Amino acid sequence: MAAEEAQIEVDQQVVDNLSGVQRSALLMLGLGENHAAEILKHMGPKEVQEIGMAMASLSNVTHSQMELVMQRFVDTIGDQTSLGMGSDDYIRNMLTKALGSDKANGVIDRILLGRNSKGLEQLKWLDARSIAEVIRQEHPQIIAIVMSFLDPDQAAAVLSEFTDPRVRNDVMMRIATLEGIQPTALQELDEILERQLAGSANLKSSSLGGVKKAADILNFVDGSLEAELIEGIQKADEDLAQDIQDNMFVFDNLMAVDDRGVQTLMREISSDQLLIALRGAPDGLKDKIFSNMSSRAAEMLKDDLEAAPPVKVSDVEAAQKEILSVARKLAEAGEIMLGGGGGDDFI
């Protein structure tokens, strides 16, 4: 009996240490192929890829762990589902309670817009080069609207496909100054893309673009391109460039993440990746990382940092961007909170 209780406690710890994506993957495995397939139909490309990779990486799952995840799912649904309420109202109320009205509005618009859009939404299933080819001949304002609709990492990859720096700078400035788009105009754009991509849709409303969107996209581009774009925007509008930089979340900002968040992040990144990224980090951030490791692991990392050969700046920036990408995904899943570069808000 004592052995069984001990095993249950171990399984509980294992489940608690799983990320949200891993728990979702475990749940999908438990539901079976048919039910899991039906759920995946309602997910976007990034979610499908992340859950698929998590499912493929799971091993040595016990029946107890599966039952714990299932029970947690049932409990969560029981706590959150509200019968007799329209789905739109439920989404709005749930996200407003979770994020506050200011932060929830943009998320709500994006969810409801995405649900009703097919032309724009289908772009998310294409690779960056294909998207660039679809929109390359469009007016820069149209390109800016499309880029604002994409997730920041995908938009950054598309931006990198444009080789003319004047086009890149123009598009980024238009994204940063985009305050919204009329529903009829957005519907017309969606219908144009729909015909190109063989889709059909109606659109209600949107609050795409803005300084924060531009900053989010720049967070995902390569360091050299990021510097080039900021410099180009500064030449045209110095205040706008400063606003964008103030809203960017950079590697040094990880110092604002609480200890629990740092520990969660470190479970999702490799030691090799961390070793390279810390080569360009301030001492304060290094100390924060060390303090959230076991003393033995911290000493080993310090020794590795001292003994490691020189690394290209571009390699350090790439490793930092990869870690920031993981951090943003964890933040989007509600598993950590990232202190934004613009002040005391969280993203």
What key phrases describe this protein's structure?
Annexin V, domain 1, 347 residues, 21 helices, 3 domains, mainly alpha
Task: Compile the SSE list and pairings.
Elements: H1 2-17, H2 20-31, H3 33-40, H4 45-57, H5 63-80, H6 87-99, H7 101-116, H8 119-123, H9 128-135, H10 140-149, H11 152-160, H12 165-177, H13 183-197, H14 211-218, H15 223-236, H16 238-247, H17 259-267, H18 271-277, H19 283-291, H20 295-307, H21 313-332
Helix pairs in contact: 1-5, 2-4, 2-5, 6-7, 9-11, 10-12, 11-14, 12-14, 12-15, 14-16, 15-16, 18-21
Folded structure, characterized:
The protein has 347 residues and is an all-alpha fold. It folds into three domains: 79 residues, Annexin V, domain 1 (Orthogonal Bundle); 131 residues, Flagellar motor switch protein FliG, alpha-alpha superhelical domain (Annexin V, domain 1, Orthogonal Bundle), CATH 1.10.220.30; 82 residues, Annexin V, domain 1 (Orthogonal Bundle). The protein is built from 21 helices and no strands. The chain is globular and about 70 Å long.
